[in-house]
């Protein structure tokens, strides 16, 4: 295959196996971080280790694919909310989902806080989608007008780092993000 040829689409069963491996990897990485063995991911997916390696040659490739998949799902969710009747509610609902998933899923929290080449394209798309929600919420008067997407992402990244350490309880995490969200509202 040359560099210009598109890879052939996966057969339906291969696609299902790949999706099962990704879902199992996301759950395993959320529970145990990147230290989880590939054999454990294969067991959780109900496939053999060879199936995992066929789709993802290294654990790092699987981790990257799991993060990119999760970020792409967040992008889709943001785009779905972009035309909501209440832009302020849509903006804060999106942030709430991001916080909830980021609190449960370490991979999303890590993706939001990492500046690595393999994450730049999906991170840019996520920032663009969130930026659209932010702009609409600002235009509706639900969010203060003196911040931009870069400010918002710095606040979210910093809050994720602070609120997702091992000593933080769920209630503390929720209160931390409530304070941040309140700070985004107009004065």
Sequence-ordered SSE layout with sheet pairings:
Elements: H1 12-32, H2 38-45, H3 49-55, H4 59-81, H5 87-104, H6 106-112, H7 117-139, H8 149-163, H9 170-184
Keywords:
Arc Repressor Mutant, subunit A; 9 helices; mainly alpha; 2 domains; Tetracycline Repressor, domain 2; 187 residues
Account of the protein in words:
This protein is an all-alpha fold. The protein folds into 2 domains: 9-57, Orthogonal Bundle (Arc Repressor Mutant, subunit A), CATH 1.10.10.60; 65-184, Tetracycline Repressor, domain 2 (Orthogonal Bundle). The chain has helices at 12-32, 38-45, 49-55, 59-81, 87-104, 106-112, 117-139, 149-163, 170-184. Helix 4 (59-81) runs antiparallel to helix 5 and helix 5 runs antiparallel to helix 7. The longest helix is centred in the middle third of the chain and has 23 residues, at 59-81. The protein is elongated, with a radius of gyration of 18 Å. 30% of the residues are buried. The mean pLDDT is 84.
Summarize the structure.
This protein has helices at 12-32, 38-45, 49-55, 59-81, 87-104, 106-112, 117-139, 149-163, 170-184. The chain has 187 residues and is mainly alpha-helical. It starts with 11 loop residues before the first helix and ends with a helix.
């Amino acid at each position: 295959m040359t560099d210009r040829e598109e890879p052939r689409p996966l057969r339906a069963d291969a696609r299902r196996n790949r999706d099962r491996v990704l879902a199992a990897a996301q759950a395993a990485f959320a529970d145990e971080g990147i230290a989880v063995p590939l054999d454990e991911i294969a067991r959780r997916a109900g496939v053999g280790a060879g199936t995992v390696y066929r789709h993802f040659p290294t654990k790092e490739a699987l981790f990257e694919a799991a993060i990119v998949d999760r970020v792409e799902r967040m992008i889709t969710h943001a785009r779905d909310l972009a035309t909501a009747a209440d832009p302020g509610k849509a903006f804060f609902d999106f942030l709430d989902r991001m916080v909830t998933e980021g609190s449960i899923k370490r991979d999303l929290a890590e993706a939001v806080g990492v500046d690595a080449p393999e994450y730049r394209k999906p991170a840019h798309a996520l920032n663009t989608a969130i930026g659209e929600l932010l702009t609409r919420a600002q235009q509706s008067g639900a969010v203060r007008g003196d911040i931009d997407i870069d400010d918002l992402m710095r606040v979210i990244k910093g809050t994720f780092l602070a609120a997702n350490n091992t000593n933080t309880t769920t209630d503390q995490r929720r209160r931390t993000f409530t304070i941040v969200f309140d700070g985004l509202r107009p004065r």
